Amino acid sequence: MVNRRRFLAGTSAAAATLGFPAIMRTAQAADTIKFVSILDQSGGLDIYGKPMVEATRMAIDEINAAGGLLGKQVELKVYDPQSTIQFYTQYATQAAAGDRANVVHAGITSASREAIRPTFARFKTLYFYNTLYEGGVCDMNCFCTGSTPAQTVEKLVPHVMNRWGKKVYLVAADYNYGQITAQWVQKYVRENGGEPVATEFFPLDVTNFGPTIKKIQAAKPELVMSALVGGAHVSFYRQYAAAGMNKNVPIASTTFGVGNEHKLISAEEGDGMICAYSYFEEVDSAVNKAFVERFQKRLGADAPALNELAARSYEGAYIWAEAVKRAGTADRDAVIAALRSGIGFDGPSGRVSIEPKTNHALQNVYLAELKEQSFNIIESHQAQPPTDTLLVCDLVENPNQSTFKFENGLKAAGIDI
Q1: Residue 44's pLDDT is what?
Q2: pLDDT recorded at residue 4
Q3: Which residues have CB under 8 Å from 47's CB, separation 6+?
Q4: Beta bridge partners of 199
Q5: Of 24, 109, 179, 405, which sees the most CB atoms within 10 A?
Q6: What CATH number was assigned to the domain covering residues 153-253?
Q7: Residues of the chain with pLDDT under 50
Q8: Is the pTM of this model over 0.90?
Q9: Helix axes 153-164, 176-191, angle to 10 degrees
């Protein structure tokens, strides 16, 4: 089990010694390629951000150890926005205008992404968003490598309905991701002959789920679908198990485990839950086993479990590096053209490449069941396209499109909003 207290204490101490929530990984150098990461290492979203930062650091260290890029070292600077949108906007401006970053990998929530994406477009700073999300971003300057509902939820819903039943109760975080993902879940439930009996949304700081658990008991669904987010929402799974509900009404989730929640709750509380992501630490491949071994050796007892967010942060850095090599320069326009040329990276999750109409990832998808705080993979799907975002985005036809119109995507998919 991860020693999370030691992990948090170690990283907090490192930040404290600097007296500022930015950590420079290498000395300033005039002739480097600049890579900036803006990810939450404190606040309620740190359970997601910390593994992402460590995976990014490992990727950049490996790239530099192999000679860097174009004869230059990659200079990594990491900012901690502390789960606060104001700091995201502040550090985005600093990265683009002050640091003059060649690339920025940033953002966990959709709110943070949409707060900073216009800044990077304005300053013409290449931007990577490596977090699973609700789909719909269409922006030549933005590359979204995380999975979208059409890649994961579309496979998760019919699997658990065939296994457990047709009556589904939804619980979700009360912001863009939770609200939009809930609508995709409802669509897939209905398409597979099911009934969404109720949907509830919760602010990210909610910790008391007693009233909702009583509602679930009264509604008598056959399964619960969760799109809860953040450290506070871990309380739902503990309280659900304490009420004995996990023995009677199983849970599937679009988010559980990407914050390593399965290591924070007990096996008794979590066993049987089913999730779908583009990566699990338990992927059975030589590349992934070597990746996990390097990561654990690097961090020792403080190593967090690896998840889609961490793996995609690592792979996102390498896809960008491959594009720099192909382009022969770190200049934005040339790197964008290289990213959209069909290159990819064979990483721990499998082959990851960029789909050029959307600048989203073509990626493998895995379904897995939780047992004894580990995921057992039960299905795999190769090279899944982001079909939801393809409904509203075609950067080949319209390279100047720069939108996030999830309403259009939902309507195009036949979802009444």
Answers
A1: 83
A2: 38
A3: 230, 231, 259, 260, 261, 264
A4: 170
A5: 109
A6: 3.40.50.2300
A7: 1-29
A8: no
A9: 50
